[in-house]
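Supplementary Text 2. Reproducibility record for the structural model of the 340-residue chain.

All settings were left at their defaults, and a single model was retained for analysis rather than an ensemble. We include the record here because the model underlies the residue-level annotations in Supplementary Table 4.
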Amino acid sequence: MSTTARKNAATPAPEVGSETRLELYRLQLELRYCEKRAYDLFLQNLIKGTSHLSLGQEAIAAGFGVAMRPDDYTFCTYRGHAHTLARGASMTGVLGELMGRQCGLLGGKGGSMHLTDVAHGVMGSYAIIGAHLPIAAGAAWSAQYRGTQQAAVCFFGDGTTNIGAFHEALNFSVVWKLPVVYVCENNLYMEYTPISSVTAVEHPAADRASAYGLPSIVVDGNDADAVYLEASRALAKARAGGGPTLIEAMTYRHSGHSRADPGKYRPPGELDAWLKRDPVPFYRQRLIEHGVDERTLKSMEDEAMGKVEQATANAKASALPSVDDIEKNLWSDGGVAWRN
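Retained model, structure tokens:
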């Protein structure tokens, strides 16, 4: 973090108000508890197949979720549970979708890697690496054309920065000054490979930003205040016609790439070091230092867990999809026939 254009992740954020801080903590709690429950349900064989959890990365989703407008667009990867929930999607709908139940966001037909909730601006989770970056640019172009001051926010992993679509989307977004924010969640690893072993620069997103005339921005992705402030600046710039922003958020996933990955390729002690910067207890301590009463925090934690318990019960009680539903809602008109 030597360049002056790069933001210092450790800079205090006194301009984040007390109500905003409580909202950031509430959201991080719900994301953490919900994904932990998803892990438990997987172990109970109630979630089939694999899933990609973002435990340890909640501050990024929470920071942007609080900063965004309800009509903004979110584009996320297969590790998109937290980003979907952060926009206000139903917890029952998310857990139901993971369990393949009728109450799921997509009626149980999409599963973990394809969460979508257009009503809350979640325009899809994309399993193809980098595929959604140009689509986010397209959504931003639509907002620009319509003059709505909406912004598109596109989340992706560090490995995506070595995909052609990353560079193509950035280039056109700058050329057309599109209202889009690209957020690289750098958790140090692609699937099993350290990003540093296959990339020529230290920061795979931020160190390439200057090639497109953008500032180099690195933020502490485990500090919800820092993410919220950076998100607010980028969104304000987008709405004012200032064009795109590229942000690299440094973070760490607590588990392997997916539920099938024990993560044994990580060097000894690395996980323990990052757990000391776990965003949830870190932020809890910050609230205490700002005078928030312990009873208030305990009440928030109980309320968040209560929401998870209720959503779990709702999802378990929901029926499995009927075979009759297999050919429904495949195209925009709700049918199955191809439309040209």
